[in-house]
Amino acid sequence: YDGRTGITLLQAVSEPTVSVKAQRKDKSMMELNGRAGRIERDLKTGLQTVVMDGLANFISEQGMLNSQKISVKELSEGGNVLIADGAVRGLVQETSFNAEHAKWVQLKGQLELSGKPNLIDKRGVDLMGAQIFSDTLLQQVVVKSDSSTRAAIKFRSEGGEGGKAEANQIVISNSGTTAEVDLTGLVKYSMDKMTTESDRLIAYSNPRTAQTKNGIFDLQKLTLTGKVSFVQPGLRSLSERVDYRPGVEVQEILPE
């Protein structure tokens, strides 16, 4: 420890990792482990930043992170901001994810993922893209594309795969007890033998109840708008709008 700079260096010697444990003002606990550590205390504010490098692992009541390197910075308004780099794996409030880079603002419930991120949402969808932004307080997830990676989603149903899609952007939110998945920009969707293309697609789940299983998206309907191409065995239609409900027979076919 260097009292002039407020820096403490930690190095694992006899054990595989070193550990730093702390208790916040709200009595909640956190623990950070790694092969080598660095604790920096701001001599003016007293706020700390803890960095672990090599087999880094963070655990708290809000969730956990594993990565090659993790830094935990204490914020003046309360809580911490975590930055993880390299083979990131995590679990935050029933949401699991993988990425190369992650930023987690605990107090605000905000998570930013990049570097081939993958996120599994408890509402029954698997998400991939160039960047993923999750806000647990708003219960909203945004997936964005870039020039090399498109935003993509897989729907999980009780009977197995419930369809998959890709778009320029995907937004997941709640409307009451119903989950809404809003896909915009060059949307492609497929389920069983049905395929569609459109400018926009919104998937609605059936309202969740106490009996609804976590991890299942129980599809209520799809609404497709803008240059819609709808294809399934025996039917092909082009239109500006299609409303589709599973198990409901299509009664009108629009000519190409």
Describe what you observe in this structure.
This protein has 256 residues and is an all-beta fold. 0% of the residues lie in helices and 65% in strands. The protein is built from no helices and 20 strands. The chain has strands spanning 7-11, 18-23, 29-34, 36-41, 48-60, 63-74, 80-92, 95-105, 110-114, 118-121, 125-128, 131-135, 140-144, 151-157, 160-167, 169-175, 178-191, 194-205, 219-232, 235-244. Strands 8-9-12-13-16-17-15-14-11-10 form a ten-stranded antiparallel beta barrel. β10 and β11 (125-128) form a beta hairpin. The protein is elongated. The N and C termini lie far apart (75 Å).
Describe the structure concisely for a colleague.
With 256 residues, this protein is an all-beta fold. The chain contains no helices and 20 strands. Strands 8-9-12-13-16-17-15-14-11-10 form a 10-stranded antiparallel barrel.
Distance between the amino and carboxyl termini: 75 Å
Biggest sheet architecture: 10 strands, antiparallel, barrel
Report helical residue fraction. under 10%
From the spread of the alpha carbons, the general shape counts as elongated
Derived structural class: mainly beta
Fraction of residues in β-strands:
over 45%
Q: How are the strands of the largest sheet arranged?
A: 8-9-12-13-16-17-15-14-11-10
What gyration radius follows from the Cα positions, in whole Å?
Answer: 23 Å
Which sequence of SSEs, written as H and E, runs from N to C?
Answer: EEEEEEEEEEEEEEEEEEEE
Number of helices: 0
Low-confidence stretches: none
